[in-house]
Write a structure and sequence with these properties.
Structural class: alpha/beta
Order of helices and strands: HHHEEEEHEHEHEHHHHHEHEHEHEHE
CATH topology: TIM Barrel
CATH class: Alpha Beta
Oligomer: single chain
Distance between the termini: 40 Å
Helix content: 40-55%
Shape: globular
CATH superfamily: Aldolase class I
Number of domains: 1
Number of strands: 12
Strand content: 5-15%
Strand order of the largest sheet: 4-11-10-9-8-7-6-5
CATH architecture: Alpha-Beta Barrel
Largest sheet: 8 strands, parallel
Number of helices: 15
Length: 383
C-alpha cells in the first residue's frame, strides 16, 4: 500500500500505522478514558440525512467561505496539532505548504517543532496560531506578539486543556516528548527503521516556540500529560481569555467551546469566532460531540460569530451536514496527521484534494451552488 491507494480516512490511517512507531501512532489515534467521545465525534453525523434538490443547474459550485478575516477556497482547514515533526521529518513546513497550495488555513500549535518565524518565511498562505495560557505569562505574551509581527491572520485560545485528559494509550506505550527509548517501546521503534533514520538525520526535535523559556519537552523528556499539567495554567478564567483577545487585537477564537452559554460569553469578550471542539475526544470523555452542539449554538448567536466545527470530520458529506447545521467551516486534526505520517506534504495534499473533490461533488448532488444554500432545510434527523 502506498499514497496513491489512499482515498479516505481509513486508508491514510492504515498507511500511517505501517510507518509510525506504536507510541506515536497511538498518540494520534487515541482518546481519553474509554474513548466514547472520540467515537461519538464521527458517529453523530449519522444521526441525520441530507436532503438534495434536483434540476438546480448547479454547474461549478462556489466552495469559498471567510474565516478569521480571510477568504479561503473551501470550507475546511487544518486544525492546530502539536509536534508534527514526530509524524514526518518536515512537520509543520509540509502542512503549511500543502494548506497554502489549496488556499486554506494552516494552524500552528504552541507545541510546534518549527518556529512562528520559520513557517511565516516559507508560507504566504493564511495562518492561524493556537495559544495556551501558561503559568509563566511572559510565554503567552511572547507568542502573541511574535505572531503579530510575523503576519499570522488569526489566533485561537484553547480553553479545554486546563489539565490533561486521561489518555491511557499514552500510559501504556510510554509516549513522551521528545521520544525516549525504553524497554517498553524499543521493539516498536526498531521495527520502523525508516522513521528512526529520518528522525535522527533531520532537524533536532524541540518545542521551537518555547524552548528559550523552558527545557521541558525539548531537552527533558516529558509525557504530554506531564507537560500540560506543569506548563499550562489550570486557573485560567474569562479575564485571562479577554486579556489575550485584547493583546492580539485581531480575529480571535476560543477553541473548546461546547455550550450555548460559553458561546454567548465569547461574544462579550470580543471574540470573532469559536471552535466547537472537545479536543478530538482527548479530554472529557462522555461529553457531547461538536456536531451535536452546532445548531443550538448557531441559533443562539446568530451571525455574531464565525463557527468552526472541529472534530470527527471524515468525509465531505460530514462537512455539508456541519454547514447545514450552522457551521461556517470545519477543521480536522487526526485525519491530516495520518496523511502527513503517510506521505509528508504530498500526503496532506492528497487528503485535501480528496476532501475538495468530495465536497464539490456532493454540492452538485445536493443541488447547491453556494455554501449559503446549505441550511437546516437540507437536513432531517432520524428519530
Amino acid at each position: 500500500m502506498n499514497l496513491k491507494d489512499c482515498y479516505n480516512f481509513n486508508d491514510f490511517r492504515k498507511l500511517a500505522k505501517k510507518r509510525l512507531p506504536s507510541p506515536i501512532f497511538h498518540y494520534i489515534d487515541g482518546g481519553a478514558d474509554d474513548e466514547k467521545t472520540l467515537k461519538r465525534n464521527t458517529d453523530s453525523f449519522d444521526d441525520c440525512d441530507l436532503i438534495p434538490n434536483i434540476l438546480a443547474s448547479v454547474g461549478k459550485p462556489d466552495l469559498s467561505t471567510t474565516v478569521f478575516g480571510k477568504k479561503i477556497d473551501m470550507p475546511i482547514f487544518l486544525s492546530p496539532t502539536a509536534m508534527q515533526r514526530l509524524y514526518h521529518h518536515e512537520g509543520d513546513k509540509a502542512s503549511a505548504r500543502a494548506a497554502e497550495k489549496f488556499g486554506t488555513f494552516y494552524s500552528m500549535s504552541t507545541m510546534a517543532n518549527n518556529t512562528i518565524e520559520e513557517v511565516a518565511d516559507i508560507s504566504s498562505g493564511p495562518k492561524l496560531f493556537q495559544l495556551y495560557v501558561h503559568k509563566d505569562q511572559s510565554i503567552t505574551d511572547d507568542l502573541i506578539d511574535r505572531c503579530r509581527v510575523s503576519g499570522f491572520n488569526g489566533m485561537c485560545l484553547t480553553v479545554d486543556t486546563l489539565v490533561a485528559g486521561n489518555r491511557e494509550r499514552d500510559h501504556r506505550t510510554g509516549f513522551t516528548t521528545p521520544p525516549k527509548l525504553t524497554l517498553q517501546s524499543l521493539m516498536s521503534f526498531a521495527m520502523k527503521p525508516e522513521w528512526v533514520f529520518n528522525y535522527f538525520t533531520h532537524k533536532k526535535f524541540e518545542l521551537s516556540n518555547v524552548k528559550n523559556k523552558t527545557d521541558k519537552g525539548t531537552n527533558i523528556s516529558k509525557s504530554v500529560i506531564e507537560y500540560i499539567n506543569e506548563q499550562y495554567d489550570p486557573a485560567m478564567n474569562w479575564k485571562d481569555a479577554e486579556y489575550c483577545v485584547k493583546r492580539w487585537n485581531g480575529p480571535f477564537a476560543l477553541k473548546g467551546v461546547m455550550s450555548v452559554e460559553d458561546a454567548k460569553r465569547a461574544i462579550d469578550i470580543g471574540c470573532t469566532a469559536i471552535m466547537i471542539s472537545n479536543h478530538g475526544g482527548r479530554q472529557l470523555d462522555g461529553s457531547r460531540s461538536p456536531f451535536d452542539q452546532v445548531n443550538a449554538i448557531r441559533e443562539a448567536v446568530g451571525d455574531k460569530l464565525e463557527i468552526i466545527l472541529d472534530g470527527g470530520v471524515r468525509r465531505g458529506t460530514h462537512v455539508l451536514k456541519a454547514l447545514a447545521a450552522g457551521a461556517t467551516a470545519c477543521s480536522f486534526g487526526k485525519m491530516f496527521l495520518f496523511a502527513l505520517s503517510a506521505g509528508g506534504q504530498p500526503g496532506v495534499e492528497r487528503l485535501l484534494q480528496n476532501m475538495h473533490d468530495e465536497i464539490n461533488r456532493n454540492m452538485v448532488l445536493m443541488g447547491c451552488k453556494t455554501l449559503k444554500e446549505l441550511d437546516m432545510s437540507k437536513l432531517i434527523y432520524r428519530k
